[in-house]
## 1
Amino acid sequence: MQGAHGMSKITVYPDNESLVAGAADLIIESAARAIAERGRFTIALSGGETPRPVYTLLAAAGCLERIDWSRVFIYFGDERCVPPYDPRSNYLMARTVLLDKAPLPRDNIYRIHGEEAPGKAAADYEDVLRRVFGGGAATGGPPLEGFDLILLGMGDNGHTASLFPGLAAVTEKERWVMAAYVEVAGMWRITMTPVVINAARQVVFLVSGAGKAEILKQVHEGPYQPVVLPAQAVRPASGEVRWLVDRPAAAQLRMES
């Protein structure tokens, strides 16, 4: 489907269960391909309720052994400014359902230090990413090599990662990671910016439920206004965007046959 993002492919699943299975398969296949081609798989996880069952499935028998976890490197697209043991932490959710169950070397997990001062945590995480992906801090601009896969969700206000409507990070051109106080959430968040998201080989949105139908239609079929609908700012330069959505979320889309 040709959407507001240029080439973006939408796959509609009949229900949430099949969406979860499809997302897990896509991650497993992406990992195998990246490891075969480049010897490692770099993935940025998202928080929230939609990916939780996907992570749970990846940790289950039948999926877990299909990935060479020793070559998987885990990052996070965004984080709430809370300690790693806080129930609101994206890292804690991923750790509980997946990371503690997978045979992952601890050194392969790069969490955002949400317990630090927000500006410091953002700058430190950008330094981590620049060391891994290359791209001079002095010059700004995108990574020399992007993530293999960035997982994203979308809120009912069109936000993705912690790129909320109206935040400066949505239109950032140089910094890779930024901190911002998010009024609607009542807390500080740290997020990757479109500079690093749009350098990825593949970006995958997971969108589920009737509550997302109206905003999904606006993002795909409405005018391009990323400051209002930050999910529209995700337009990889050479990578692909995949939208995995269930039927209730896709209910208002004009789907081409």
## 2
Amino acid sequence: METRRRSYDEGCIAAHALDLIGDRWALLVARELMLGGRRFSELRAGLPGIAANVLTQRLEGMEAAGLVLREGRAYALTPAGFGLWPVLKALCLWGAAQPGHDPRLFISPTALMLSMRATCRREAAGMHRAGFVLAGERFTVETGPGAYRVARGGGGEPMLFEGGTNAMAAAVYGPRPLTETAEDSVGFTGDLAEGQAFLDLFSLRRG
């Protein structure tokens, strides 16, 4: 059974932060809650590599640290938990620049939505509203000059992307144009030119 590291016993504030969120899986639990509350089963679906007892331990530890709270049968982030977004964004951008990333491995729908939130070139964004249906989950993304918003749910978007999460990640970040990916790997409804302009906002490589 995994033993939780209680403390680094240092006065360093970075060590204090790691005391709170440094256990394995803890940041990924926060990732899955970043777009709203989730039930235990939904967290398991987004984190297929975690054992149920370890997830229980992480949720209990994060609740004790003031990062997570219970909302009925669901778990949600506190304001301190939502404050971890800049940490997750920095890890996303840093990780994208490191060798060895395998995009064929499991990607949760929330993880893809947050990676897009992290990598969007807001300075180049036009006014777009797009829906995404990934593994039965629905999201709405809205962009504007200097702005980006993603939320669970939605409906009635002028553009709709549908497909498996890994295929969608390849469509968003890969070199193939939407005219090709919409034929054989993802579903797309809407204006192809606008859809391509939207996808062109995202890149894992910052030049």
## 3
Amino acid sequence: MADLPLSFAACEYDHVRDLAEGRVKAKGIEIIPMLFEEPHFVFQRAMKYEDFDIAEMSFGRYISMVSRRANDMTAIPVFPSRVARISSFYVPSGSKLKSPGDLKGKRVGIPEWTQTASIYSRGWLAESCGVDLKSIEWVQTGVDEPGRPEPSPVKLPKGIRVRPDTKYSLSELLVNGGIDCAMTALPPKPFRDGDGRVRRLVKDSRKAEIAYFKETGIFPIMHVIAVRNEVLAGHPWVAVNLLEAFEQSKRNAIERTLRGSHSAYPIPWGYDAALEARELFGGDVFPYGLEPNRTTIESFLRFGHAQGVAHRKLKPEDLFVPSTLERILT
């Protein structure tokens, strides 16, 4: 019997490269890859046009859809993008703000209320820093271009104010004094350009992020991999076979990083950084599967519901193809 051809769209991650290029094979599946530089192109096409059989998806948008029972795709517990987000607070260089706790009563810019990074950042701000999210005036606009529509409907809690700005971008608002802080996954352009007008609010953010992980066990998941429900209905075996193939592709990438004999990636001291990460996480630095990630997922669902991104309370088991829930990846 011929393999089942399935289109697959994601960013150009090294940990999916072997699967996309055929060095790792998902049993019974012919992967037709389409790799992109930015995830937004994938999210837009997958959610609005259902262009792909398998696609990378924003975790925030995904829990919104599941909470509204509006998801045409269902995730498997594969998490291609994970980024700690205490580093995602940006302020003007001359700001008198000294810590995130000082954001009470301030104007804070966001690109989307449902942006996954912002959900984690607000969760940390509320639960770990004690800042009432209702005390903040939220301003929504694009990072580098004015105006950015909310991609998913939100059910804002009573007292939360989000004001759209269609005239200025977050980068411009930081420089012209329109906001006190920007909370964004993509650093504002002045910060990316190194022009000195914008800095991170948390100066030693990596130290803070490591401490947060040690204290809570939360290692933020940004994106998930989802499969069209029509594919799963007709070929239920696809979910587990994909999960196992993604896992092998990821392990190959980690092995390249930890080999240490040459520069697998153009990052100075990359091998030492990989060793430090392995020690911190106690083994797999990018675990897939439900159980190794339960703490992070439960926390994200709690944040998302409290912030009105998820319209009802969800459990981790509500998010993934049932056959993958108890799969132990070895």
## 4
Amino acid sequence: MAEALEIRVGTVENVDRVRERLSFEFGFLAQQGFSVQLQEERHGDTTLFTCRLQGAAPGPAGEVDCGEMLRHHLANALSDLIVNEWERSLLTYLIRSQYECFTRGEQKAIFTAASRNLNCRPDGRPDLLRKIDRKGRVLKLILDYLGSQQELNLDGFITFRLRDYRDQLNDAVGRAVDDFLMEKEYLEFVNLLRQFVEAQEPKLKLVHAVVQPKGAFKLIDDRGAVVTNENLAESFVDIDSEVNTEDLFVSALITLAPERVVLHCPTELDRIESLETIRAVFEDRLTTCRGCHLCRDERKAVSPVPQRFPGKKRPGH
């Protein structure tokens, strides 16, 4: 029988989860005929696990390398613990230490977004391969370390040996903060527009906002007449003709501040940014229609021409 090998693993955090995960890993080895022992002792704040493995009787494939077997199973267990247990506390620490200016509720939202950055595709769908890739990189570093060391302090290893991994977490947090600030700024902007609309006298009782198949638009009043440049000229004296059609669409509706807006929009264009802004600003004043003659007429349009308004260039554009 091969000589026994032992490796010690120390930790301050997540002691119960480390014990549970190592016991599971050693139970798996015991089922394969290996002699295994897991001992636990306390040294101050640190719990030290002694992991001992001795090979089973040689089989048809010959003698098993106990050292390689123990290192591989320990690396598998510890890398799994790091990405499933320590990762959450690492993200929380990074957020609370670097972004104290945010409230706990805002920090929680940033944590959720950072986790999504780490584990999801850009469209928000879960991507298990991202976590598997992180675990694989951590596993390799643990294997390399155990190739020359027989004692591993988990907390210290994470702090000093997993800098690339921690940088990856920090990057996910940074992107989450940027997105959070952009969303916060957008919501403040929408709230300002909403207050502006509510404060001014409506210029029209009803406006049909017709979004055409290629994203162009036109505005029609309650008599069926297209709203012309003359209706809006005074409000666009500071806007340049280069401002995109979506900006003008929002600006025109904000300027008119109608009592009611009926949005006629093809389903495939539902998520364009300008429409989300209009919905957020007008809220209860807005309804969506997809089946009237205006909707059908615009679906038949072959080459819709965007409605544009004259003016000067807006600062910052």
